[in-house]
Amino acid sequence: MISDAVIVNHKEFKEALDLYLRLSKKTMADAINEKMVNVAFKSAQFTEPTGPKSTASAKIRAEIIGLPITKDSGVKRYGDTKFVGAYKLMNWQRKNSGLVPRGNKFGKRSAKGRLRKFISHRAKSAKWIRIGWSQAAQAFGKKFTRGKFDEALNKRLGGGIPAKPATIVEAEIFNNAGRYDVRYKPAKPRTPSGAMVVGKPGLIKGIQAEIKNMYVYIIPRLAKNWYGIKGKIKLA
Amino acid sequence: MEELKFKIIADSKGVDATMKSVARSTDSVAKSGDGANHSLKHLIKTFVGVGTGAESAAGAFRTLARLGTAGIVTASAAEALNKFGEAIKENAKNYYETNKSLAEAFDQGLKSTSVEQADSALKSVNDRLEKIREEESKFSPFQAILKVAEKLTGQDFGTKNLEKARDLALQERDALEEIVASRIKERDAVEYTSEGIKALERQQKLNKIMLSQSAMAGRARQEQVDMAYEDLQTTSLVVDEYQKLLSNLQKIDEGQRNQKLYQETIDKLLDARVQKEQALLNLQKAQRAEGDKAAQATKTFGGGLLGSSQAGRQALETAQKQRAEKVRQENFKAQDVYFSEQAKSESARTGTRVTAQDMRVREAQRVSAANAPTLAEQAQAQAQGISPEQVAIANVAQKQTGGGWLKDLPKQSLDWSMGGASKQEGQNVAGGKGGLMETLNSILQSLSSAPLVTSGAGGSK
Description:
With 236 residues, chain A is mostly helical. Chain A has helices at residues 11-24, 28-46, 55-65, 84-96, 108-123, 125-139, 151-154, 194-227, and strands at 6-8, 158-161, 168-175, 180-181, 188-189. In chain A, the strands form two sheets. A two-stranded antiparallel ribbon of chain A has the order 2-3. In chain A, strands 4-5 form a two-stranded antiparallel sheet. With 461 residues, chain B is mainly α. Chain B has helices at residues 19-32, 37-48, 54-66, 68-74, 79-111, 115-153, 161-217, 221-251, 259-307, 310-350, 356-371, 375-384, 388-401, 411-416, 432-449; one strand spanning 4-11. The longest helix of chain B has 57 residues, at 161-217. The A-B interface holds A 3, 5-10, 13-14, 17-18, 21-22, 27-29, 32, 35-36, 39, 43, 129, 132, 163, 165-179, 189-193, 195-196, 199-200, 203, 207, 228 and B 1-13, 15-16, 21, 46, 129, 166, 170.
């Protein structure tokens, strides 16, 4: 599991931002806020969609099936042990929501269906991550225009701290989609989960896309200022 | 606890180059001395970029910063500032020279009349652009420091001069490139039409000589007409050629056009049009002269032939007599038909019987009136601005037909005007203007001959 999902002062990003600031005639705080919003948008855009056949859900399935097939006391089980992991999960869910656990008395068909449902719920994390990024953008005063992102409902899923004009300028966006475990009532902080597996590559891709975007702005202007080249310049 | 986070922490010193922040940073540099070396380098880098001159510039700037904000203004003779002073002077001098040479080159380009001249102007602007770039590379280490100094002191050290000069040169280069292109277009247009125009003008001159030669030699008129026609065709072709050249020149943008060439072309076109009109006049003259000559020739030639022999003269006399008789008969027939038709229409109009002889009489009256108008008629004509004959004819015609509402009355009333007034008492006075006057006269006469009833008081009974 990935534990380190906090990116501070991305090196290439800062270099590009430095050049961008000199050419754009914006203050540092304004420029950083603009770029942070763009990163949030692009992270949501590049977050890989998940589903029953995606790599993320395959990992979760392997995780569940890999649960130890033993009793709590450590005694080995005998007989049909195919759905032991599923039974365990279901009993755990019942216990969390204040119900009496039912042991192995679910029935095979029921266990199969419940397991599929459980995995599909877990695999929907991509959408929660996108909602988190939408909340991060909203903290900077920009809204996602496509999709339903209800502010009151999703506020705890993400956010951001905009930069203010100061000597040391700080800004951040964060995504709490994998932070809370909603299976507990009330929800409590989560242990490492699939949300990070899906979320971090999206964030990194978003940052890289924004760096490229900045160079698209920078390179033609530098070319014009120093060499008098006009018109479009193709970037590799 | 798991969360995705992206955070940026940045130092806004130097990058947010407002007046205050720069002043604060220089103050802090001055206070902290050598310890601030690192942050100063960073500051310089943010302005200049990673350049080779950054190290030396950092040293110079440190000295400058130690003097403090007030120190920069007062200590202009300080050693540390000498470098900048020189740089500023050089910059200003270069800027002046650059502007001057650019202006000269551009002026030359605008006034150019040939492709070569425009090309040379473009080359000189390009050379100047190269020099500006060289100066920029030399000046770049100082530029950032001068910018800071400008902000601190509020004075203009001309850091933007090179940028301005470069922008100007780039603009001028573009404009001159367009001018060169337009000169090439002009040259092509002139070359395309000039040979044709030359040949046509040569032909025009030849035509004129031929025309005068034929007139002097007294050649046939038809030949002269042909020559005039040919001349007209040539001149119209010349007009067409100049028109073509002018339209080609008009396609070039007005700002980049060679004005001298354009004006010359217009003048030549106008001259060619005048020549064309002259040629047309010449042709018409020649044609008319030829037509007159043919008619005169028939008349004199035929008369001369007949008059030269007795038989011919007799034949001519006979023919003339026959012609006169025929004319008389025709005229008689015509007048007969005319007056009878007039009489018919007049009878239909008035409802009375009018003969052709009546119409002849009326016509004769009109003619005689027209020949001798009265003085009153002459005065009326002068007042109305028409001829006296017209007035006389109109008066006669009014009498003949009975003017206005009088003509529609029955004939009895007309007869009454000739008779006594006592017979028609109580009836309205009518019967034409003359009749009316006669009636009035007769009434006056009868009144004067009647016994006086008002003589003496109380009557004579």
